[in-house]
Specification:
Elements lengths: L1 H9 L16 E6 L2 E5 L12 E5 L3 E5 L9 E4 L3 E3 L7 E5 L5 H46 L7 H5 L1
Antiparallel strand pairs: 1-2, 1-3, 3-6, 4-5, 4-7
Helix pairs in contact: 1-2
Amino acid sequence: MFWLIISAFLVSPAFSQDQSDEVTTCSLTLVNGESTYTITKTEINVNVVATSAIKQGSCCYTLYTDKTRKRGDEQSITEQTTDIWLERIGSAYVDSCSVNSGEVLLYTMLGVGVLVILLAVLGLVKAFSTVQHRRKERHRFNNMLINGSCELTEKFVRA
């Protein structure tokens, strides 16, 4: 768990500036037979049918069927060459190639929260069963006193 929390802070954001000042050029070429369409930045209203995509550079892309928003069916392009399974590409967004650090932190905190709740529930169950056991022993002890039995053992004296 500790390493998940540490890794959340070590994962760099998707669009952080490169340590060097050089600009990385990225492009995505959508191919359908002989025709091609090249994308170099986020584009809406693409409206292209493609069977494959060729990615160049260190950027990744997410393709959506909706023309203007990140909605509808989607396909991530992270490999250099990818077969496209979307019927029509409505929009293309430059996207992160790595896990988003915010998501890692979110899932880490969610896991910790679930663990804390689970431990609290287990503690309550244990406490309830102990109380029930003590009530049962007191009831048996009281019955022995009522019936006039003189068999008091250490177990009943401690309760």
